[in-house]
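Trying the structure run again after the queue cleared.
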Amino acid sequence: MTETPKHSPSRRQFLAGAAVATGAAATGKLVHAQAAGPDPLITELQPWQQYLGDGVDARPYGVPSKHEAHVVRRNVPWLTADSVSSINFTPLHELEGIITPNGLCFERHHSGVADIAWADHRLMINGLVDNPLVFTMDDLMRFPRENRTYFLECAANTGMEWRGAQLNGCQFTHGMIHNVVYTGVPLRLLLEEAGLKTAGTWLLAEGADASGMTRSIPMEKALDDCLVATHMNGERLRAEQGYPVRLVVPGWEGNMWVKWLRRLEIGDAPWHHREETSKYTDLLANGDARRFT
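Done. Tokens:
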């Protein structure tokens, strides 16, 4: 057996030292917390202790404390010509935990927020299917739904640093991202209901907003883990997040998570629409286009 060098601390000595260090840290914290004299915020009655506050009906839908009014999404006006086709940023530096509150999830719009009533919206499936279908929102709610926690990130996240630092703070450099619990119908169930033809290898998702947002998605991805989502963090989608229904494409760029989803067309090749030709693509050396995913 090799003899332990005299200068090496034993396990007992190590634990004893750790205990002393922990005690010192705790003692130091208590000493630091001691006040030099009476603190009026402790010794005197404060206004909130002397008067009644609002009742339970004052805010039927809860809002953050007015003392947290600085915790908001923020836009950068010079990024785009108009805010209806722009982005704002999640205040990551003000948040704790892993779930982003619905009111702080960043927004990206191409034609502003579409205002659609639940009863007026329809989702159509057409193209290379056996049974073209049109669903009302109530129809969709009859399908089995799943809860899944996914992050959504814009393809331009960290873009403020691509040409060197331009804005201070992680809200602007990394705030094009949020993480929420989505509730929705697995996309594969709706496609199975329509009956995919063998030649159907691609899916075109189309939004109902004025920009006519469309993206091509490989069928293997559509059948894997995509959701047709109606809820975020236990409540129905907010208007800016695609109410009444949006597509969820886990792990792929946010531009493919089509909001205000109105149509799913099945085809045998990608469509090469605007958002996958003039934007959100990268040309390879041979001239082919590579999609950001």
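The CA atoms of residues 130 and 250 lie 27 Å apart. Worth checking whether this holds up in the mutant runs.
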